[in-house]
Amino acid sequence: MKQNMAPIERKRNLAGNYSIPESLNKELRKEFAEDVSTPMDKLQDDIINQNNYNKKRFQRSIVLDLDEQKSYKQIMNERNLEREELRVEKLIKEKGEGATQTIESTQEKLLPRKRKQRWDVSPEEYKRQKESEESNELVKHSTSSLIAELVQGKVPVVKGIPLTDSILEKILPPGYIKVNPPAHFKQNEETLPPDLSDAVTTTSEYYLPPTNESVSISTTEIPTDVPGVKGLEFFKEEDMKHFGKLVHSNPESLNDEEKKELNAMKLVLKIKNGSPITRKRAMKQLTNNALRFGPKVLLNQILPILLEPNLTPQERHLLIKMIGRIIYQLDELIRPYTSKVLTVISPFLIDEDPTVRLETREIISGLTKAVGLANIISTLRPDLDHVDEYVRNLTARIFAIVANTLGLKSFLPFLKAVIKSKRNWTARHTGIKIIQQLCIMLGQGNGTTILPYLSNIVEILKPPINDESLQVRTITALTLAQLADNVSPYGIDSFEPILEPVWFGIRKHRGKGLASFLKCIGAMIPLMSYDPNYEDYTNYYTTELMHIITREFKSPDEDMRKTILRIIMGLPLSRKLIPGYEKSIVKPFVNAFWNRRTASDSTQITRLVVEATNHLAIKFDFLDMLEHIVYFTKDDNEQLRKLAIEAVNKLISNNRQELIGMDSQLDRKLVDGVLFAFQKQTQHQKIYLTCFGTLADALNVRLKPHLNSILSTILYRMKNKLAEIRQQASDLIAIIAPVIKQCSEHDDELLMKLILILYESLGEVYPEVLGSILNALYSCLDSIDKATLYTMSNPSINQILPTLTPILKNRHEKVQEACIKLVGLIARKNSETINAKEWMRICFDLLEMLKAQRKRIRIAANSTFGYIAKTIGPQDVIVMLLNNLRVQERQLRVCTAVAMGIVAETCLPFTVLPAIMNEYRIPEKNVQNGVLKAMSFMFEYLDGKITKDYLFAITPLLEDALTDRDLVHRQTAATVIFHIAINCIGLADNDYSDVFIHYLNLIMPNVFETSPHVISRILESIDALRLVIGNGTFTNYVWSGLFHPARKVRTPYWKIFNNAYVQCSDALVPCYPRIENLPDDKELSYKLEELDLFL
Fold first, then answer.
1. Tens digits of per-residue pLDDT, 550-602?
2. Greatest CA span in the chain, whole angstroms?
3. In terms of CB atoms within 10 Å, which of 417, 543, 579, 946 comes out highest?
4. pTM for this prediction
């Protein structure tokens, strides 16, 4: 047709060919559509915490109208209606599926059967059949042929409408004429069919980075400052929905109820979004005024916020904590709102965060105590047979908490009625699940709550074992298994009535049902083996169960495999019980579980396989099982090799004595297999090193024939290009160096060669590898004889130490720690050959290490100070440390004080104490406090025999500190006295008692301090002094304060007396005040003549 607008041809743009693929473009746009401002902790919470099952709490329709109170009958009618709706929907769905299948089968029947060409079919008949088939195929594929025709003719398609001639005649007004193409026109095959949608807007073929198309938040609508609410850290968009009244309301036009609601709203907002100090104050205010606000006002504010899906973990924690405090304050006033509270907080019982689960459990426990069992039962009874499994699961968990809180005695009658329910299998299932959840909540081996009622519970669970519903039978078996685990190793007498039904259930079930029944009987066998009266039962059930387990070894079901492995670990197997164990158990087990499929399975399965292998090895033939496993250390599959290494490590570490009977051939196989697995690893993991270390320690001298092959492997890997391989080789040297010393006896030549190689490797650029090399060097030098260290020349200690000095300045934590430990080792073993000036230079470098963030580095530095001080004398080191007390940084001062304490311990106090006490004369708080801390650490490290010699010398200093106005001085001085008194218990005679009484006189006035840190140290020192001077003298200081008219005076004295009563109640009896007669009753005598006896 002749058209007014010529067809627009798309330009051939080569740049488009270099763009990213369209699929990747879509993925990028979809990914970038997420809000880039979303913090990582929220994304992590969304990924981890919001699994599909947990998300169901946002899909429930919850009505939080606290004014609407439905009766029990109304709720039950609603549940029946929901159940009926589900049944009808299921029937309609089944009917629809059945009708579809019927139509399809009818069509298949109506279509004529395609006949094959046989010898008796004439050519004419065959031709007719073929034409008929072709016409059917044409009708069938008319749509696809039309599409092919459009593509072939390059007909443009706009919004799914092909612009053919017939369609254009209908669209365009009359008057258009079809024009033939020019004579010399040639269609370009590469030209794309014109797309009229591109005629309006031209697009570039270049790839444009996507922009964030998330809904922009209008900053003008979200207030930054809420009227009347101060101390907020943030105010989110979602908060406007719940706290919008605070922004838009006018306080003057509100009545009393609305003002109360507004005040509660302000406090909730402060707790949710406020700074720590604001939250603390608001929480206290809300708790104190909970009764004034009432449950309705408070719950109206809190419960809707908890239903928000965008809550951060911190906000959720604060809101849950708030509900717990409110319930405690309101007590029985919360009763009408029990249903709403449980509906909102119960989903947190299955939260991924264990802290949230624990908090929710405590809230439900508190709610149960407040409202009572009857109210909880009437609230949750309609949900016992709810159509949704999610609701039933939560109901079972709530009832388990209720049973644990109020005790099983009052709860069992209700539970018995639920499990006997004939109305619906779901109610029975939920009732049994309550017992299961109670057992899980108590934990394995904590069955003291259940044990008195075990017979009643087992009697309740006996009928459901043969229930008509498979789900009920399965949950019953699992619950019985959980019960047996809880009360283990007791209670087999109570389980005896259900042994026979469970055993028959094993014969009747397959699949998951069989797994649950196997788990049940497997949990009871350990209880039988504990009771000698059930020895025959144990032997019979163990033998029969092993036949069934061996049959199920090849089961593809993962649950069955896990169950089997767990059962094996609990069975009392023995060679006598199963004589043909090698053929009937060990070989089938190895064939079924020691394969590549298991090795690539989940971590849980592999861990269970290793544990089960270890159990079978202990119970049967250890060396035979070890030989089976060693074979897999040379497998081509790395995961299977790793599994074998884990098993070898487990077997050897737990049963080293079993290797005594190992022959040289298995010895060689074992070392060769572990070394092969170590060499072939592509993913470097710690288990290989751990296994090598375990094997080397177990074999000890027997490793000598294999040392050459091991060391050649290590040295070859030390020169590898990859840093990880060099690091692992260095770590292996550190592990086997002590064993090399054991194998070489008095010849240290091999270790000296290793030291030379490691010394030459100290120029390593990768800090992780350098740290491992230093650790290996430490291990080699520690293993070598002290005499050899003096004579060692290549390299000598004089060469090694200056090389380590610049490495001390390395900022990497692993390098710092390893280097400091190595310097400390040299100072301990071979310090005489080093110049004192070199040690002083190292001391100055070590001072910097006291600022390290990692505690282990500071500990290593302090220990090294002690070794160096012992070498060159404490005078120079102490001067340097005392100068360090003047710095402002507290951590550095504390570490310096610790170092001074270690130096005093190493070189004895008389070398250090004069300098320290002289430094105390400087009128600077930091220095004086540092000296007191140094004395505290010093007397903490010393014993009583040394401590008592310095009592009189340090008393004036401590007297000054205890009478100082500075709280920290008194606190630290009290700590010093605490350590001195603890050291001198039983060693201080009458000559020293006056000193301790003097200390007590100085400390007692400080009992009225309010600072928690100070008062705890004061009370500690008073307790220690009581133990030194005796209860008789000590109680004279206490009696007057116990009955003082002022409460603030009585309180600290009663704390002191309570500590004394707890620790020395028997020793206090002779020291009580002597009261022979009461003033009002002079005839009755209270005199105890026995207490007048003195030995």
1. 988 888 888 899 999 999 998 998 888 888 888 889 999 999 999 999 888 88
2. 145
3. 946
4. 0.70
